[in-house]
């Protein structure tokens, strides 16, 4: 049966769908929850509002503005890469994986570019609100990324006899993340599980006709 959507339309639909849902969730959380507030859904799933100043796990290797610009350039490169994949007739599944990664990257870039200038500061005592542009909690490119999904699937204390970590509490899965992060992770995992051949062959696109089928 003929596919209803072209590969380009599929990519756009994935990116827009993830972006809209990601931003709706983030705005709802930021404008309705106190910072570090936690809502119990089940014993293994909480909504917990925190903000990430950097990249994965809160890392801040370079100044925030440079980090945001670098991530924006990276997202543009992924978008260009998807165009090349479509022209080269790569598989829809592979293009969908890369589109998930692009959607997640753009979702977090939006927070970094705009949230600092359109929202007031979130604190444990005050819920953030929209403010006139430029009157937010920081400047352009310096916004913090909103995270909210927390899945402490199980936890235990390490045996006391273990060196360095003996007696410490361990929680699996402890990171707090958002839908954009999940989109990136899902795209990468599916890519490595099912599309390594396509990934490897795409490295030579620049020296091969873009219309060669994969």
Automatic annotation (TrEMBL):
Location, primary (coarse class): membrane
Protein name listed in UniProt: Lipoprotein signal peptidase
Coiled-coil portions: none
Topology within the bilayer: Multi-pass membrane protein
Transmembrane segments: 65-86, 93-118, 170-195
GO biological process, one term: proteolysis
Protein's job: This protein specifically catalyzes the removal of signal peptides from prolipoproteins.
HAMAP family the UniProt entry points to: LspA
Keywords: Aspartyl protease, Cell membrane, Hydrolase, Membrane, Protease, Transmembrane, Transmembrane helix
Cellular component GO terms held in the UniProt record: plasma membrane
InterPro entries: Peptidase_A8
Family: Belongs to the peptidase A8 family.
GO molecular-function term, one example from the UniProt record: aspartic-type endopeptidase activity
Subcellular location: Cell membrane
């Amino acid at each position: 049966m003929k596919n209803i959507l072209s590969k380009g339309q599929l990519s756009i639909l994935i990116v827009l769908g993830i972006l809209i849902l990601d931003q709706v969730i983030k705005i709802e959380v930021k404008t309705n929850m106190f910072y570090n507030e936690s809502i119990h859904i089940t014993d293994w799933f909480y909504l917990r509002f925190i903000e990430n100043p950097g990249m994965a796990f809160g890392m801040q290797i370079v100044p925030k503005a440079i980090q945001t610009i670098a991530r924006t350039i990276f997202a543009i490169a992924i978008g260009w890469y998807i165009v090349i994949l479509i022209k080269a007739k790569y598989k829809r599944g592979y293009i969908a994986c890369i589109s998930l990664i692009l959607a997640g990257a753009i979702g977090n870039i939006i927070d970094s570019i705009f949230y600092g200038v359109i929202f007031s500061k979130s604190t444990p005592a005050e819920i953030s609100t929209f403010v006139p542009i430029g009157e937010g909690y920081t400047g352009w490119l310096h916004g913090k990324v909103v995270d909210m999904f927390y899945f402490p699937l199980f936890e235990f204390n390490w045996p006391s006899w273990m060196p360095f970590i003996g007696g410490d509490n361990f929680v699996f899965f402890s990171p707090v993340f958002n839908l954009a992060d999940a989109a990136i992770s899902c795209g990468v995992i599916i890519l490595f599980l099912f599309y390594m051949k396509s990934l490897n062959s795409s490295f030579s696109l620049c020296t091969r006709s873009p219309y060669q089928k994969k």
